[in-house]
Amino acid sequence: MTLKNLLKIKSNYKPMVKCNRNLREIFQEGETLGKKINKSNKRVLTPSEIHEFIESEKGEIHYIDMLQFKKHQDIFDTTIYVHKDKLFDIIIPMHVLDITKRYKMIHEYAHYILHSSKGRCYACHKGNTRIEQEAHAFALGFLMPTDLVEKAEKMYKQDINWWIPFFLLPQKIIESRIEWQKNKNG
Ligand SMILES: [Zn+2]
Q1: Rounded to whole angstroms, how far apart are CA atoms 117 and 131?
Q2: Can you give the residue ranges of every domain in the chain?
Q3: Which residues surround ligand 1, an ion (CB under 5 A)?
Q4: How far is the CA of 23 from the centre of ligand 1 (A)?
Q5: Could you tell me the distance, in angstroms and rounded to a whole number, from the CA of residue 103 to the centre of ligand 1?
Q6: pTM, rounded to two decimals
Q7: Domain spanning 3-144: which CATH class is it, in words?
Q8: Residue 54 alpha carbon to ligand 1 centre in Å
Q9: 117-143 residue pLDDT tens
């Protein structure tokens, strides 16, 4: 669907609601799916592999530029519109850094899997709410599975400067995943 049409239909769509499932369970679901798609257990999924995966799920990715951004102030961050099962649109503002895009795509996909009931709805991202924690847990498992985290721990110890290019993710996300691992072991 075009961006213009997406903005028009918004009033007929409902905001998504949290699923309240156990966060560990959600993390594992993300991890299992990420590993199923990734044919290599040696490296992370590349941006194009993630793109292909979203497209194979009948998701379309739109990049919104600054002009459109100004016109449609209600889209101030990445978001997703779900139309029905296997049909959704993800919107990513162009100012989102490349290193953040993989995370954003899977975070939005997580909203589709966990919060859409595969009916007409959209995600509105507001702070560190339960619904955001749920999507985050799924994305962490998907993009940073346990075996690759253990591998990184062995190779790079605590040096986050190596973790960033290995996982192709921003520091904030990596730190959140390391915290997750600590809690698991603690
Ligand atoms: Zn979100």
Answers
A1: 14
A2: 3-144
A3: 125, 132, 135
A4: 15
A5: 11
A6: 0.93
A7: mainly alpha
A8: 16
A9: 888 999 987 788 999 999 999 999 999
